[in-house]
Design brief:
This protein has 13 helices and 29 strands.
């Protein structure tokens, strides 16, 4: 006869086809039917969800404004606000949200799930077409914040349960539940605000206040960023019961372009780290870049930077910034072997001067006023080498470079990323703005495209 010694097993009694737990067994107390996988996932991810409130100064510039200002005391500028959600992706306080949530904002404030409020500043956006932006919480001292984990790019199951999380209007956490309806939804046409391939479709409700928040799976991991479709100046959904999210793969690609030494440190490094993955893996190395010349390869595992172990892709960039003499000591693991190398970086401005044969600089408020343009109008051509690519193409000092290959510019980092992605001898198309003056009248501008062969 079998000797059953397990108390847990002995406490279970079968009665009329029902499985019951004997009193005092502790079995019933350990199982709460309300605390299912959905609740557990929400408890895991919700602390990282934030509310985002923005403030934008809108300036009036027509003659009626002067009349209203004179007779009714209206100011020539007014404040416009908007709200959305975001999600912390790194314990240092970096927040991912939708570009349209903070677009043109002059002030951004975030409210955490625990009720605390902070100012936040934009780190950098991906293009509005990819609808991704990265913010940084401003604190007086170093602080750690709860961060969501990113799911693997392909970790998606059609029909799986998903939750759209947000913190709309700062009223607290919001959850809507649904299923993953499609992994390959395509934009209706090329003019759609969100021209993203393979964005996610779900029947979990997403409203404008939840836009920018995370779409998570039952593991509590981020699989996408919720969006409310923007069209004609208003948010909308395309049909009842249909919402959309930017897939984690596109999110990871956008973040890997935003948070790199070129944008954060003003230095050309030339390698991308896969965000949200540990151990850190090099996902891409630009040919001819400092990283390439130092022997780094796609797939290398980063185990050390300047003698320290980076715990995240953001910390990797922070450690890179501590390099002396623009030289980073990198240790990687490849095929089970540890390899050490040194990466000698180049300042963004020096790279652009070398490849284009001219000096570009960002517009200060004073320069923008002098040229009667906004600070986002482009980069100022501060100098041109006569025998360089810019000089041979007819570009002159005082011109503005508004874009490269169709991508709008207002900072050296974005120009560096574009130029460094092209090899010596490649052609790039510069969108040039030429300020003109006719007598004492207001300045006017001529605009056109110039093809330049980079060095």
């Amino acid at each position: 006869m079998m000797n059953i010694q397990s108390k847990a097993f002995a406490a279970i009694v079968f009665t009329g086809g029902w499985l019951l737990a004997a009193p005092g067994s502790g079995f019933a107390e350990d199982v709460n039917p309300r605390r299912d996988a959905v609740v557990s996932a929400v408890e895991t991810a919700m602390p990282s969800v934030v509310n985002i409130a923005t403030e934008t100064i809108v300036f009036r510039n027509n003659s009626m404004d002067d009349i209203f200002s004179e007779f009714f005391g209206y100011r020539r500028g007014y404040k416009s606000g908007s709200v959305g959600s975001g999600v912390i992706i790194d314990e240092a306080g970096y927040i991912l949200t939708s570009f349209h949530v903070i677009e043109r904002a002059t002030r951004v404030q975030v409210k955490l799930n625990d009720g605390r409020e902070f100012e936040a500043e934009p780190v950098m956006y991906a293009s509005g077409r990819s609808d991704i932006a990265l913010l940084k919480i401003v604190t007086g001292k170093p602080e750690k914040f709860p961060a969501v984990k990113l799911a693997d790019d392909g970790d998606l199951f059609l029909g799986e349960t998903v939750m759209a999380l947000g913190n709309p209007f700062g009223l607290g956490g919001s959850v809507s539940r649904g299923i993953l309806s499609s992994k390959t939804r395509r934009p209706v046409n090329d003019d759609e605000r969100l021209g993203i391939e393979d964005w996610l479709q779900t029947d979990a409700s997403v409203n404008p206040g939840n836009s920018g928040g995370p779409l998570v799976n039952l593991d509590g991991k981020l699989i996408g960023i919720n969006v409310a479709i923007y069209s004609g100046g208003q948010y909308r959904v395309q049909a009842q019961g249909i919402s959309f999210a930017i897939p984690v793969k596109r999110v990871r690609e956008a973040v890997s372009q935003i948070f790199v030494p070129e944008t954060m440190l003003g230095m050309w490094f030339g390698a991308r780290i896969n965000p949200g993955v540990f151990p850190l893996i090099i996902g891409n190395v630009q040919k001819g870049s400092p990283a390439d010349k130092a022997g780094l390869r796609t797939g290398d595992e980063v185990v050390g930077v300047n003698g320290k172990i980076p715990g995240s892709f953001i910390q990797f960039n922070t450690l890179i910034g501590e390099s002396e003499n623009l030289t980073a000591e990198i240790e990687i693991r490849r095929d089970g072997k540890r390899i050490g190398t040194k990466v000698g970086m180049i300042k963004n401005s020096d790279l652009l001067r070398t490849r284009l044969g001219g000096s570009l600089q960002e517009l200060t408020p004073e320069l923008a006023t002098a040229f009667s343009v906004s600070q986002e109008a482009g980069l100022l051509v501060a100098g041109v080498d006569d025998d360089g690519p810019l000089g041979r193409a007819g570009v002159q000092k005082g011109f503005l470079v508004a874009g490269i290959n169709g991508v709008k510019l207002h900072d050296l980092a974005r120009a560096t990323l574009i130029i460094s992605d092209n090899g010596s001898g490649d052609d790039v198309v510069l969108n040039i703005i030429v300020p003109r003056q006719r007598g004492r009248s207001a300045p006017y501008f001529e605009q056109g495209d110039v093809r330049v062969k980079i060095r």
